[in-house]
Amino acid sequence: MTDSEDRMSNMLTEDAVGIDLGTTNSAAAWIDEKGHSVMIRSTEGELLTPSVVLFDDDETIVGKSARAASTVHPDQVAQWVKRDMGFHVYHQPIRGRYFPPEVIQACILRKLKDDIVAELDTVGQTVITVPAYFDEPRRKGTADAGEMAGLNVLDIVNEPTAAALAFGERLGFLNASGSTAEEMTVLVYDLGGGTFDVTLLHMAPGRIQTIATDGDVQLGGHDWDLRLLDFAAEQFIESGGPDPRQDPAAFGRLYVAVEEAKHTLSARNRASIRIDHARHCHAVDVTREQFADMTADLLERTVYTTRQVLTDAGISWDKISRLLLVGGSTRMPMVVEKLQQMSGIRPDRTVNPDEAVARGAALYARFLLNQRAGRQTGYQVSNVNSHSLGVEGIDPETMRKTKVTLIPRNTPLPATFTDRFTIKRAGQQSIVVQVLEGESSSPDDCTQIGRTVVRDLPPNLPMGAPIDVTFSYQSNGRLEIHTQIPGMAQPCRLTIQRSSGLSDGRIADWRGSVSAAAGFDRMAALAVTEEPRAALSLASLPLPEALTPSPPPEPPVPPDAGPVVSQPAQAEADRPNDGQTHFTTSRRSSTLRFWVLLTGWILSSVVGLAVGYLLVLWLFPEIDLPRPW
Ligand code: ADP
Ligand code: MG
Question: Ligand 1 pocket, 22 CB below 6 A?
Fold first, then answer.
């Protein structure tokens, strides 16, 4: 057997595994011999493993017991770590040390790997899921976590894409090669414990394409729990007890009771929360209706985001074939009722909302393995950029700094856009291209992801001379920027590679401790004592070097090189897709000025006429004119 035949037969025999590495809970699934997705239970017999890590002296404990320890030893426990991906370290010190978030995620994955091996005897080839809005550093960080845990990471796939595959398997709209027979647009509404995501997908034979995605990383079942907790605590105080929220241990116990009551309210109309604190005991009753009332604004926030995604994509509800519910919090009846009322579509809950993502990831792993072994034709999964990318410019009308978007959010990747700007002053020598990410038109509210100075502009350029800026954003997260002055031979090129925080060497260092489930004593040596809190995608990115046609040795940036890119009016016409962000400031200011002037003119005319009329009446009383008195 040749090497490649050997590899191919391994691919066919290797198990395809999917992991949903969730903010609150994680889960794993695999594909059995018949090609069906099957959930893998943990060694504790559970389908879900809480994504919580307890750093004990000589071992790291993941799951339920780590969660139980979070109220007793909060400084030894890490949870909601997924929210910190993209930062250098997890936001809270663990026993005085700061750990990279991908290392803590690796501990969770290591526990899942052990459970997978216990069930299948092998680790298999794994696909791990991430939210659709995760940028490249966070995807790479997730893959690194998988590697540190000792997994064979086949690929990283978006959670909504995976969920759609799982629904496709169950409902039969996916064929054997993992593709739909007909085209359809699907909306995935995912309300988990700490995050909310909504994604529009277009499914066609051989292709799943993300059309638009949005979400709220600070909204999930946890917020519903806190509302119920406040309600229960206030009832307890009214009954004569002290505030249980003031005592961390009592708070922890109440939180557990409240979450249980929330789950009960998904099945029954009323629930009771028993609080026993400081020798005072009281049972708080709550109905489903009361619970829905006290959390209506939270639900409304998810509705607003959902509408926004449809508006962004220019799609109305009647074009949506299916509305898929994912995430434990979609079990709350208020979610189903609200969505049905808003969309007129019956939300689909055919697949268990805790399982859809892991099952879909396993299906995707199987498709990839079959494809690589040549047993299946190509299958394309594509994404969009979840944040707008642009440059800092100067609004010609207000002369204020503004962000000019070149690649609007939700643009299918890869994407290339060019926009034309003008030189601010005659004879200008250099131009600063400040690359920004974010939705605000104010550069200060956006993330600065790179900066380059184009020097040695041709001498005597007139004011208003054009300069073209092109952004090419590849599916792998690589952003290339070209600037070109029409008529100038050599374009300037800059590449920004948004890379993960951990070097290969650091990953190798951590791998030993993570895969041995080593405890704090061993891990502490690799952790840092200070908090270097900067997002990878922000400050830690190495500033890109200025690439000019002939770079002079370390020339000082001329003081006039400040933000010198301004956009001419015709740029609006050149713009293929966007335009609003580009000119919002100037358009709004000139429109406002017009209305203020018009109103002022009308008011002064009316007052002038009235004063003139009164003057005539006073000076010439003999004239017979109608008098207002
Ligand atoms: P994540 O994607 O953040 O890991 P999950 O999808 O596992 O989260 O959802 C966890 C959330 O779902 C928790 O807030 C939990 O309380 C909530 N949840 C689970 N089951 C129910 C239920 N029956 N009723 C209401 N909420 C539930
Ligand atoms: Mg989830």
Answer: yes
